[in-house]
Design goal:
Radius of gyration: 13 Å
Helix content: under 10%
Strand order of the largest sheet: 5-4-1-2-3-6
Order of helices and strands: EEEEEEH
Number of strands: 6
Number of domains: 1
Shape: globular
Largest sheet: 6 strands, antiparallel
Structural class: mainly beta
Length: 92
């Protein structure tokens, strides 16, 4: 099992009908997701969340990826490099 760090770049101010906040999270390589979490698992803008995943040995692609405590996670378009730099600075 592997872990990848993402930063929350946006969080809804209110919850949906299930009591979940929506968040947009971005990794250092620009990978981005829209995800939802309750008040107990939602993070604030700038805080980190971690995706756990495994690698398919045949295709070498990510599989079984999830953010613990999050629901309705959807992959969205990768974040532009100039925006990633603004979010993450020069960290590698």
């Amino acid at each position: 099992m592997y872990t990848k760090e993402f930063k929350v770049v946006a969080k809804s101010q209110n919850t949906n009908s299930f009591g979940l906040f929506q968040m947009i999270v971005v990794a250092k390589d620009g990978e981005a997701y829209k995800t939802h979490a309750s008040q107990y698992n939602a993070k604030e803008q700038g805080e980190s969340v971690y995706q756990k995943y495994s690698i398919d040995p045949k295709t070498e692609k990510k599989r079984n990826a999830y953010f613990s405590g999050h629901e309705m996670t959807t992959k969205i378009d990768d974040c532009p490099k100039n925006v990633v730099k603004e979010i993450w600075g020069n960290s590698k």
